[in-house]
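thread: overnight batch results

M.L. [08:02]
morning all. the overnight job finished for the chain we discussed friday. pasting input first so we're all looking at the same thing
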Amino acid sequence: MDKLKERINKGITENYLNSDINDIRESLSEYGVDLEKNSKRQNKLIKQLKFKLRSSLNEEKYDALLNRATKSFQDAIGRGLEKPVAYLNSLIRENRVRVQYNNLEKLSADEIREIIKDQNLIEIIELLESEQPRKK
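M.L. [08:03]
and the structure it wrote out:
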């Protein structure tokens, strides 16, 4: 008996889905559904979801840039490149970040990330890439 009810419900649902949209709206209105109110609520929900999606994507992009800049700084420190090391030192002085270090080589990735997180990451990456030796 339960299978019969399932099939009937499925048939009714498929009938609605394949019906003319105006017939569906008319049917919903007959049942007391305020279509305009529902439409406004749905539009608001769609806008919220789009905003959250954009926010999430922007956060992922920012994290990717931050990780890239951190790795580049670590490479530059390891190679002893002057400009990136000087730039990192200036960021430490400007931000007055409380990083305990005797030399930059002992900075962890998290400490570098903390130093550069509020900076223009694209500018930092361009600086670091300009200092990297060109591969031929």
